[in-house]
Amino acid sequence: MSIITANVTSTTSAVFTSSGNTAVTYLQLCNYSAGNVTANIHIVPSGDSATNLNIAVSNLTIASEDSYQLYAGPEKILLENADTIQVDVSANSAVSAISSFTSI
Predict the structure, then answer these.
(1) Which residue range is the domain that position 60 belongs to?
(2) What whole-number distance in Å separates Cα of residue 76 and Cα of residue 36?
(3) Helix (H) or strand (E) holding 30
(4) Which of 20, 30, 54, 67 has an alpha carbon within 20 to 30 A of 41's alpha carbon?
(5) Residues 6 or more apart from 26 whose CB is under 8 A from it?
(6) Which of 12, 20, 13, 36 is CA-nearest to residue 2?
(7) Domain holding 92: CATH number?
(8) Per residue in 25-38, pLDDT tens?
(9) Strand ranges inside 37-81, DSSP E
């Protein structure tokens, strides 16, 4: 398994890009700021853009100094080459993303 970290901003951008076929086993967003933030998470097929058609989590409030895990138990997201997980938040310099994946 591998781990990727990313800084999340108010501009929707990829926090994970699949290289080949992958199973994302974990995704956590951590609000390390002093205020609440909202987050949107999109699971985007290769060549597409983040839209309402691929939003997985919408306007999630993450409290100050709290975290949100997208996965629990044995759940996984299976991605093909160049598929992405894209995230945006309501404030810059507030949220980090950690994802774990394995090739399949």
Answers:
(1) 2-103
(2) 27
(3) strand 22-31
(4) 20
(5) 69, 70, 71, 98, 99, 100
(6) 20
(7) 2.60.120.340
(8) 999 999 999 999 99
(9) 37-44, 55-62, 67-69, 77-79
